Amino acid sequence: GCRRHGDRQNHLVGSAVSHVVVQQQQPPPQPPPVVQQHSHTERLKRPELKLSDGKVTEDKWDYFVHSWDQYKTLSNLGNLARSHLEQALQEVGTKVFDRLGKVATDALTEERLLAEAKDIAVEQ
């Protein structure tokens, strides 16, 4: 009867080991990224540069750029950021276009577009 008892013990050890292996194969559940969660729960409003008598103060410009950076990050715009920025600039975007023309405006990077817009919009 000694041999049967040994087989039974091996069987128990074997099933315990396979149980542990199964447990390890399941990755822990990952929470969804905050960016995705945010964009699904709430539609972000794109910031808009509002002029007063055709200009803005340096403070208002700085706040617009701050809001723009937040919007860009939370909305995960990637390579669409420049197009969204042109829309956010509103009439200043139009003034940049009028000053530079289509080809030059389309060639602007996001940073250059901001620089041109600031040059036009901010009170000196």
What would the average pLDDT be, to the nearest integer? 80
Biggest sheet features: none
User: Based on CA inertia axes, which overall geometry fits?
Assistant: globular
Low-confidence stretches: 34-41
- The rounded Rg comes to 30 Å
Count of helix runs: 7
User: What is the succession of H and E elements?
Assistant: HHHHHHH
Estimate the helix proportion, in percent. Answer: 55-70%
Terminal Cα span: 100 Å
Residues in β-strands, percent: under 5%
Structural class: mainly alpha
Q: Count all strands and give the number.
A: 0
Structure commentary:
This protein has helices spanning 2-25, 34-41, 58-75, 81-88, 91-100, 102-107, 110-121. It contains 7 helices and no strands. Helix 5 (91-100) crosses helix 7. It is 69% helix and 0% strand.
Descriptors for this entry?
124 residues; mainly alpha; 0% strand
Write the layout of secondary structure elements.
Blueprint: H1 2-25, H2 34-41, H3 58-75, H4 81-88, H5 91-100, H6 102-107, H7 110-121
Helix pairs in contact: 5-7
How is this structure best summarized?
This protein has 124 residues and is mainly α.
